[in-house]
Amino acid sequence: MDTIYALASARGKAGIAVVRLSGPKAHEALGMMTNVPKARQASLRRLIWDDVLLDEALVLVFDHGASFTGEASVELHLHGGQAVVAAVMDALAKIDGLRLAEAGEFTRRALENGCLDLTQVEGLADLIDAETEAQRVQSLRVLSGAIGKKVEGWRRDLVRAGALLEATIDFADEDVPVDVMPEVTALLAGLKADLAKEIEAAKISERIREGFEVAIIGRPNIGKSTLLNAFAGRKAAITSEIAGTTRDVIEVRMDVDGLAVTFLDTAGLRETDDKIEALGVDLAIERSSAADLRIFLTDGVEVIPGVKRQDGDLIVLGKADMVSERCTDLVRVSGLTGEGVSALLSAVSRCLSERAAVAGTLTRTRHRNAIVGAVVALEAALDELAKPLVVVELAAEELRLAARALEMLLGRVDVEVLLGEIFASFCIGK
Q1: In a domain, 428, yes or no
Q2: Of 44, 51, 33, 43, which Cα lies nearest the Cα of 92?
Q3: Is residue 381 located within the same domain as residue 345?
Q4: In a domain, 430, yes or no
Q5: Could you tell me which residues come within 8 angstroms of residue 225 by beta carbon, excluding any fewer than 6 positions away?
Q6: What is the edge-to-edge ordering of all strands in the sheet holding 293-298?
Q7: How far apart are CA 349 and CA 260, in angstroms?
Q8: What is the domain range of residue 48?
Q9: If we measure between CA atoms, which residue out of 241, 237, 217 comes closest to residue 228?
Q10: Both 222 and 335 in a single domain?
Q11: Whole-prediction pTM value?
């Protein structure tokens, strides 16, 4: 096993730069530069190479089995000048048995050494990429091992049910003192219900991770682009008195009270003979139908021609600065003057926050697919157990398939194809 090293902090000038080493020669390499301090005790050391002082640094040493990677590790907290970092990195490159780490290699070693499961690795990646408070909280929960703890509980139920079924197979020629089928059926039905809830909640968790989409739709020249610019606080979309100016979907990503939200400015919805505008209208309908929330801008007479309302849609009177008071039953907004913009953003926040409140633990499509696979296997097992003549071996095999799906969720089987893609998203020092 090679000993790897890398700059773990951001490149460029900084107050502190952190260089990490991990592997069997980590402590020995440090010893070639300075006296090795006691494990897990921050110590000030002068780093010397070829009789030249490289830096005076804070040094941390971790023993095998007591580090992030599970290997003997060292952290060098250097002064953050680029020349200092370059000098230390050059010295490390001259030590036999050391090499520069690849992207995500420290975290991969943590996975391979059993310090993290695959969901925790993904949680760490999401934490690094987190842009909003909701994403930070969610990724920290995953990194803490919340998914693994749930899987262990589900796995215990599967093991219990499987053991009961296996007992009937092993003692097929003898009288089993207790009919185990009611207990097995109850365990599997309860487990299936729990997993079904997780699948539903995962859809919201995925939206928190990826960001919600809110579509602004309405007729041409109703103020959609002006409202988008008001939300963004800048000129993100071209505005004009000429109807049909917006042809494509314009996106602006924002942090709305801790939630990542992408607002979509869509083409004005109307019948048109202009082929390009017609394509824009079709795209507007398609994107708005898939959005998590829709803001309908209307003039108070007709909401949107040809578009079906959905539960939760926000109906708003557009260009409030230019209309009479006759439409007092609608929320009024004007992107030009700012009237109602803050109130509308608050309404968007409330709607999305209510949905985010029911988010589950699973945060990725991969997680949801694994649970769906387990549910399919459980349903097959329950179907078999419900038959007049039960083939216990078939039901037991379905339980093994369900357990395998859960193991895949944690990265314990059949995930080699995924690992390269996952770790490629990490920086070199992570």
Answers
A1: no
A2: 33
A3: no
A4: no
A5: 237, 238, 239, 245, 246, 250, 265, 335
A6: 250-256, 259-265, 212-218, 293-298, 314-317, 331-332
A7: 10
A8: 3-116
A9: 237
A10: yes
A11: 0.80
Give, as one character, the DSSP assignment of residue 273: S
Print pLDDT tens along the chain (430 aa): 899 999 999 888 889 999 999 999 999 999 999 999 999 999 999 999 999 999 999 999 999 999 999 999 999 999 999 999 999 999 999 999 999 999 889 999 999 999 999 999 999 999 999 999 999 999 999 999 999 999 999 999 998 888 888 777 755 555 544 577 888 899 999 999 999 999 999 999 999 999 999 988 887 777 778 888 888 776 554 444 444 445 567 888 889 999 999 998 877 665 665 666 667 666 777 787 788 998 888 776 665 655 677 778 888 877 766 665 555 566 777 767 777 788 888 899 999 999 999 999 999 999 999 999 999 999 999 999 888 888 888 988 999 999 999 998 988 765 565 566 566 667 766 7
Q: Is residue 20 part of a domain?
A: yes
Question: What residue has token string 């799906």?
Answer: 405
Q: DSSP letter for 215, please.
A: E
At position 158, the amino acid (one-letter code) is L
- Strand intervals (E) in 64-199: 73-79, 98-100
CA-to-CA distance for 128 and 8, rounded, in angstroms? 12
HSE toward the beta carbon, residue 169, CA cutoff 13 A: 14
Are the C-beta atoms of residues 394 and 384 closer than 8 Å to each other? yes
| 111 and 152 in a common domain | no
90, 221: one domain? no
Helices 105-112, 118-129: inter-axial angle, 10-degree rounding: 150
DSSP structure class, residue 246: -
Q: Domain total for the chain?
A: 3
* 191 and 217 together in one domain: no
Give me the CATH number covering residue 94.
3.30.1360.120
CA 140 to chain centre: 10
Would residue 225 be called left, alpha or beta, if left means φ above 0 and alpha means ψ between -120 and 50 degrees? alpha
